Structure formats: structure tokens, C-alpha cells
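Subject: for your reference before the review

Hello V.,

The reviewers asked for a structural picture of the protein, and I figured it would be easier to keep everything in one thread rather than splitting it across files. Below is the amino acid sequence we used in the manuscript, unchanged from the supplementary table.
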Amino acid sequence: HGESAQVAAPSALAKFSLVLTAGLVGGLLTCIGILRNAGFMLAKSSTVTNVLYLEIVFAYLLDAFVMHGHITVLGIAGSITIIIGAALATWFDPPPMGSSGSKEVQAPPGIAPPTPPS
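And here is what came back from the structure prediction:
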């Protein structure tokens, strides 16, 4: 009949190691999230979009090379498409207003431009 295999209970050191690892990983991911959100608030929206799309490519590469996941032609084609799209969006992104080569925004006729507070 069925014999039940006995599994040894984890030691106190193994439990502590697991809790410490989970705490460090959780803390690191929290810091990454805070810094990432702060960077997104400071960046232009077009740059943020490119970074978010490139996360898909990096996740695919992580799965393929670190986790030894299954690589497909469709996955490679999708990654290449995302990289080309992000490169083109960055290449053709217009310069910010007020920089060299762009016009300053003018107030419509009859409306005085705002004055800075004194």
C-alpha cells in the first residue's frame, strides 16, 4: 500500500534565511518602485511609454536566457518590432518647447501673456 514519505521540518536557520531573503527582496522591489515612479514623473510621457514597452523585451530575454524558457519565432519578431518602434519613437520625438530649433508659444492676439509673481 502507499507509504507516506516523511519530510524533515525546516530548521530555524532555514526559516530565518527565507524570511530574511523575502524581506530583502521585498525592500529592494519597493525601492525600485519608488525610484521608478519618481523617474516617470520627471520624464516626458513619450519616454515613459518607450520604457514601459521595452520591459516586455527585457522580460522575454530574462525568461529565455536566465530561466531557459522556450524561444519562439513570434517572440523574437515581437521583441524586434518593439525595439524598432521604441527607437523610431525616440528618433522622431520632437524637441521640447523653447529648445533650439523650436518656436516659443505665443499668446493669442488681445490676450496679455502671464507675468511672473513678484
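For the response letter, the relevant points are probably these. The two ends are 90 Å apart (CA to CA). The first helix runs from residue 12 to 42.

Happy to draft the paragraph if you're swamped.

O.
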